[in-house]
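Two records follow; treat each independently.
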Amino acid sequence: MDVRERAFELGYNPEFYRQIIAKREREERLRVENLEKEQAEERARKAKELMEREADFKRLRQESRESLERILVERFQTTAKDVITLVAGKHGVRYEDIMSRNRVPAIALARQEAMAAVALAKPHLTTPQIGKIFDRDHTTVRHALKKMGITR
């Protein structure tokens, strides 16, 4: 059935009916174009959000990596000698006194605290390794840690 027959069937002027059909087709094309445009904008917005989120994750991963590297560098740059010297200064004794075999109570206490400080500053060191630093047995280090309230 063509447009003319349909117009007569509905009781419309065929020219008027053609204009109505053309208008509806234009409106439908416009609606479809607007819908496609909105969908394209939505896809572009989502893609932009995804790229921003990925950039944020990448930035956070980089910051985390840098922060971890900084922590590791600080931890490994601090030497046991630095820690011992710091404890010696706190107790008013010399580094050499702490490293000596002297058993005077004030020096022995400073030595035990230095062992504990090294164990805390360098958690990757075992008690035998700390004992080597102080030229002591690992059981002496364990006793010092126990006395200072540090458990391993």
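The next record belongs to a different protein.
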Amino acid sequence: MAGKPKIIITLSDSERRSLQEMTQPTAQHRYAQRAKAILMAAEGNTSDEITEKTGLSKVSISKWKGRFAEKRHDGLKDLPRSGAKPKYDHDDILKIAIRSLTEWIIAHPDVKFHFRPTHASWLNQIELWFSILYRQSLKRGDFKSKEDLEHKIIQFIEDYNRRARPFAWTYKGKPLMIIC
């Protein structure tokens, strides 16, 4: 009795790049798993190896390979669910959330939101500077008062600014890649 025919996955360069982008930490987990499974299948990995690295079952791997072979990228998308249609679509939910949040913010004027970029490399630069301040000025400091501490910090900043050089910015604007 012959089983299902083995599905061989071959990728174009653009498909490979697109799938690699789908495995980034910013992608939804389920899509990252599916993309990783297809990439591994294209590299010739067995279902056992793919299962070990992705956590997907062999049945799921077979399903995603088959759907990818048939529909390429579109095959990795979720199919519509059976059952009743949702009462609200994505736009309705977004409008309701914005209205609710706006009302809450207006009712709590003392609350301030601070948004940080998805990738906080700028924060690393600030932490580096505070580390320098601490090691070079505060670590073994003996301060007689808050005013004395403030004076020494200001003095450090003035001295540091005279000899400072820009930090090397190494972030390239892409999320870090997870290597399996």
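Discussion point: The helical segments are 13-22, 29-42, 47-54, 58-71, 90-107, 121-138, 146-163. How would you locate this feature using only the token line?
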